[in-house]
Amino acid sequence: MCKLYFKQGDQYRILWVDHEIADEREEDCARFTIESDTNEGNDAFPEIYAGTEAVNIFECETSEDLIAYLNLIST
Hints:
Layout: E1 2-8, E2 11-17, E3 32-39, E4 48-49, E5 56-60, H1 63-73
Antiparallel strand pairs: 1-2, 2-3, 3-4, 3-5
C-alpha cells in the first residue's frame, strides 16, 4: 500500500493506493481511498497522520474515477 498526502484548502488528506488486484491487497478495501487527516506539524514541516478520527472521504476502484474526483475538488 502506498500513502500520498495533499492539501485541500486548509485541510490535509491522505490518498491510499493499494494493489490493482483485489486478492493481492493488504486489507479488504478499495484500490484508491482518500481520507481526512491531521497535521501534527505545521505548513512548512507537515506531519500528516491518519488518526482515530480519520474519515474516508472517497473510495473507488479505477484511476479514471480517482482523476475525475480530484479534478472536481481542485476547482
